[in-house]
Amino acid sequence: KSNAIMDKPEDEVWLAYIGTLGHSYDLISVFDALKILKDKGIKNIKFIVMGDGPLKSKFEEYAKEKGTYVEFTGRLSYEKMVGILTVCDMAINPIKKGSAGSIINKVCDYAAAGLPVINTQECEEYKKLLIDYNAGLNCVCEDSVDISKKICDLYKDPAFRRDLGVNNRRLAEDKFDRRKSYDIIINKLINGEDV
Fold first, then answer.
1. 119 pairs with which residues across the strands?
2. The pTM is what?
3. How many CA atoms, within 13 angstroms, populate the side-chain half-sphere of residue 147?
């Protein structure tokens, strides 16, 4: 099943999510956004949900109810997840209101894969990075209409997607490369500076 997912039809646009299928993540608004787009005639966006968690069956039922084009891969090895991520066209970081996360692992993986990100996370630090690097689109948290508009903006413009993806890869190289960032942190600690 997961080998077939790698054969991406040319006429499809793939939206990726990686991570826990749990209470901090607002996949419901993403399914609602995809339903809005489907009702407008956009039916070739495939949402690939990679991961597992306590709400997996709830999310699967909701996606089916909405009739959205979704594939749940379940838990994958890191290598397999990265392989799928690199053939996707865009990624989503759908965090619920009030979640405590900051720069979380999934956004580093999205950046390393060179994907433009649709972000609902309220974390100002991450929102600012997306703006400063022009690496993705920030949305109103838990607003499926706004999410659908941002998905549509990326869907309709492959060049825009590519540009944001290139910028997100640059963000990964500048900020998320541990070989660089650990040296910076160690030097700041040695010099008594704020980290």
1. 93, 138
2. 0.88
3. 25
Q: Which long-range contacts does 134-143 make (Cβ < 8 Å, 24+ apart)?
A: 134/163, 134/164, 134/167, 135/111, 135/164, 135/165, 135/167, 135/168, 135/170, 135/171, 136/164, 136/168, 137/164, 141/26, 141/95, 141/96, 141/97, 142/26, 142/29, 142/96, 142/97, 143/29
pLDDT band at residue 190 using 50, 70 and 90 as cut-offs = confident
pLDDT tens-place string over residues 32-84: 999 999 999 999 999 999 999 999 999 999 999 999 999 999 999 999 999 99
Whether 34 and 43 have beta carbons less than 8 Å apart is answered as no
Average pLDDT over residues 159-173: 95
Q: What is the DSSP string of 40-75?
A: TT---EEEEEE---TTHHHHHHHHHHHT--EEEEES
In this structure, the strands spanning 70-74 and 117-119 are unpaired
Residue-level length of the chain: 195
Interhelix angle 158-175/144-156, rounded to 10 degrees, is 100
Residue 69 tokens read as 């084009």
From the CB of residue 186, how many other CB atoms can be counted at a distance below 10 Å?
A: 11
Tokens standing for residue 193: 């500076």
Please say whether the beta carbons of 143 and 29 come within 8 A: yes
Of the pLDDT bands very low, low, confident and very high (cuts 50, 70, 90), residue 123 is: confident
